[in-house]
Amino acid sequence: MTFSIVARDPVTGELGAAVASGVLAIGSRALAVEPGLAAVVVQGAAGADQLHAVLDRLREGNEPEEAVRAAGLSAEMQCGVVTPSESTSWTGDACPGAAGGVALPEVAVQGNLLTSTEVWEAARETFHTTTGPLHRRLVASLRAGQQAGGDARGQQSVALVVRAAGGTEPLPLDLRVDDHRDPLRELGRLLDVHHAHDLIASGSSVLHEDIDMARRLVDASARLPGDALLAGWAAVGALVHGLPEAALLVNAARSQTPRFAALCALRASHGGPLAPAWNKLAELG
Question: Could you point out which of 13, 89, 116, 223 has its C-alpha 20 to 30 Å from the C-alpha of 263?
């Protein structure tokens, strides 16, 4: 009733999982990524209990195939696992419709109740022919699977999780679209928001001395005009570095957040090199 992909980036060590389905909120129960351990998807007539059972077996030291067997999945379930060294894809004998999958080095793709076997083959091929960061390859694979027919019931939800090898990234990539007519398109929008907020999380401590960071925030705010948090940080960066967009960004943030002045004053009260700029924004707001 779903198609999915789990994968590893051999260069960065990132692990990731992505899933698309014609049911509500597939991401709430079908996928998990534990840095340094595995990316896992369990789908079909399965839920969070089966997902955690596979993870538990992996934590005990089982290899992927052993973990899937030991988890006691039913014949109506599927599972894909990628660890830092191995991968496996398993499909129960009673999975409905076009059902199956493939496991290759660093990637496993699987699906059931699909329009045809071309769905997981298209996803697998696209993963291997797409370049760029792992999240981009995973999303491209979902799109290819959907273009090949996808879930026989149509589209409703998608999810994407990518974690760094050490799990120390400032803003982990963990996104879900639970109910949408075009969930993959909405996932693309959320990825843009994630990248912008990741820029804030990773760059706010150096914003006062990094004009390039300020310009990147200004550009991101222009692409995402309804994001009040981003507009505020872009405004303070523009103000610190004398960028011409500062006044426009202040007005945008003020219109999006009624308590903008109070929030700026609160940030200023925390001190630090940006405190004078936050105070100035509080006065302007």
Answer: 223
